[in-house]
């Protein structure tokens, strides 16, 4: 039960970060997009997905500095594959979804990093705590769509994810990997 709850919390945190990195003002195809968070409980990877998020992305690879991204994630939509674990993750020790229903990422700068890679700097806010992060993003353009892929390692302790008995990082690791795959209409 502790493992599942932790997984759920980590996945939600990862989803928030990933979503934020890939957001655009272009129309996002949520059915083809995903945000997940992977944590390790007792050194075993545990992945969860966020089922509800919105993204606004404005991006032109020829003018990356003019781009912007905003992602909003419904932390209560985090799914570890078991409703009892999902309920735990929504609770006060993890996401505290009643008090903090959403996690957000708002970009402040986008810079080229070579080829189709870009570094998106912005503010990630989870459970009322904010951190400036730099998210490496790979942008693929095909036909009328742009795809934004990336991952961001975060420390759950910086966002008060996993308090009380879950604060011990020997059971659930402090590092959580947020992964995202955002598909959007090309502007």
Automatic annotation (TrEMBL):
Q: What start and end residues bound the annotated signal peptide? A: 1-26
- SMART domains listed in its UniProt record: YceI (SM00867)
Which Pfam family is one of this chain's hits?
YceI
Is the Signal keyword given for this protein? yes
Q: Which SUPFAM superfamilies match?
A: YceI-like (SSF101874)
- InterPro entries (alphabetical): Lipid/polyisoprenoid-bd_YceI, TTHA0802/YceI-like_sf
This protein is called Polyisoprenoid-binding protein YceI
């Amino acid at each position: 039960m502790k493992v599942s709850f932790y997984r759920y919390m980590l996945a939600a945190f990862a989803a928030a970060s990933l979503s934020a990195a890939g957001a655009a003002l272009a129309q996002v195809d949520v059915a083809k997009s995903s945000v997940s968070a992977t944590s390790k409980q007792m050194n075993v990877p545990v992945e969860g997905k966020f089922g509800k998020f919105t993204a606004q992305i404005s991006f032109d690879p020829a003018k990356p500095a003019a781009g912007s991204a905003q992602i909003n994630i419904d932390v209560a939509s985090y799914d570890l594959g078991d409703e009892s674990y999902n309920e735990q993750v929504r609770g006060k020790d993890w996401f505290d979804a009643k008090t903090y229903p959403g996690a957000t990422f708002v970009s402040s700068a986008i810079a080229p990093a070579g080829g189709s890679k870009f570094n998106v700097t912005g503010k990630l806010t989870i459970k009322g705590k904010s951190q400036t992060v730099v998210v490496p993003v790979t942008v693929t353009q095909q036909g009328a769509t742009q795809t934004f892929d990336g991952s961001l390692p975060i420390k759950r302790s910086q966002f008060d994810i996993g308090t009380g008995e879950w604060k011990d990082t020997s059971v659930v690791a402090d590092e959580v990997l947020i992964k995202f795959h955002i598909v959007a209409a090309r502007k």
